[in-house]
């Protein structure tokens, strides 16, 4: 599943389509009527967390790539796209294996931009308040909550918890105030590290625990859990240096 930094990169890669008129539509549609976009000019392209947003006057297309979604810019991938948007000169945007939905009206009515980890409007104080409101939640589940950390995914979760030395099964309410603040701060900081490494095609080389076998800090074998917490996502962590709070 693409995480928030990857969607920001997609937004940047497609920014030149803003102002261009959709000439052709294709694909199986995934439950929406693609013809609604035909003949309309793209007013804006934005992102919120893992959502890629193509805005038209009066409505927007939301693309969520789920677990296996992908995209192609100005060329086709294998198989039938879920949606294909064609423009003058043969340019096109193609989306595969994703969820599509129309959002009516302006995007500000649908999104809390202060929850987006990579947005200028990101509000860490609000994130801390949301976390304190659910003290029994596991730290691993909290980092995957899109209402708190929009854009955070499993890579960010595993890497941030290792970076701040917190066991994924720690209770949020048991974290010292300084550690809770560190969790919030590093969720954003790591997202921008992720973005920079992804653009340089070197993200995987910077993994400390995600898909790794030994802790780079102390050399201990890492624990792997195929399903952890309410989110039931994969977890990689070090029992030696990541402290279990609560």
UniProtKB/TrEMBL annotation:
InterPro entries: FPG_cat, FPG_N, H2TH_FPG, Ribosomal_uS13-like_H2TH. Residues 113-196 form the Formamidopyrimidine-DNA glycosylase H2TH DNA-binding domain. Pfam families: Fapy_DNA_glyco, H2TH. GO terms for molecular function: damaged DNA binding; DNA-(apurinic or apyrimidinic site) endonuclease activity; lyase activity; oxidized purine nucleobase lesion DNA N-glycosylase activity; zinc ion binding. SMART domains: Fapy_DNA_glyco, H2TH. The keyword DNA-binding applies. The keyword Nuclease applies. GO terms for biological process: base-excision repair. Keywords: DNA damage, DNA repair, DNA-binding, Endonuclease, Glycosidase, Hydrolase, Lyase, Multifunctional enzyme, Nuclease. Residues 2-99 form the Formamidopyrimidine-DNA glycosylase catalytic domain. It catalyses: Hydrolysis of DNA containing ring-opened 7-methylguanine residues, releasing 2,6-diamino-4-hydroxy-5-(N-methyl)formamidopyrimidine. It comes from the Bacteria. Belongs to the FPG family. This is Endonuclease-8. It comes from Vulcaniibacterium tengchongense. The lineage of its organism: Bacteria, Pseudomonadati, Pseudomonadota, Gammaproteobacteria, Lysobacterales.
């Amino acid at each position: 599943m693409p995480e928030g930094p990857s969607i920001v990169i997609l937004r940047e890669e497609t920014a030149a389509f803003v102002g261009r008129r959709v000439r052709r539509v294709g694909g199986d549609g995934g439950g929406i009527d693609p013809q609604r976009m035909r003949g309309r000019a793209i007013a804006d392209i934005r992102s919120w967390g893992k959502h890629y947003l193509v805005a038209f006057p009066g409505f927007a297309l939301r693309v969520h790539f789920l677990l296996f979604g992908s995209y192609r810019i100005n060329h086709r991938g294998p198989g039938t796209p879920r949606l294909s948007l064609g423009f003058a000169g043969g340019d096109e945007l193609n989306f595969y294996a994703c969820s599509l939905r129309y959002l009516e009206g302006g995007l500000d009515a649908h999104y809390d931009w202060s929850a987006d980890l990579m947005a200028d409007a990101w509000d860490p104080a609000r994130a801390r308040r949301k976390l304190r409101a659910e003290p029994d939640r596991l730290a691993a589940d909290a980092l995957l909550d899109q209402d708190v950390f929009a854009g955070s995914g499993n890579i960010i979760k595993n890497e941030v918890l290792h970076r701040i030395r917190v066991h994924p099964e720690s209770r949020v309410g048991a974290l010292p105030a300084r550690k809770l603040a560190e969790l919030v701060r590093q969720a954003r900081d790591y997202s921008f590290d992720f973005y920079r490494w992804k653009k340089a095609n070197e993200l995987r080389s910077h993994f400390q625990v995600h898909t790794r076998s030994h802790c780079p800090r102390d050399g201990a074998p890492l624990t792997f859990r195929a399903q952890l917490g309410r989110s039931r996502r994969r977890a990689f962590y070090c029992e030696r240096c990541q402290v279990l709070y609560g």
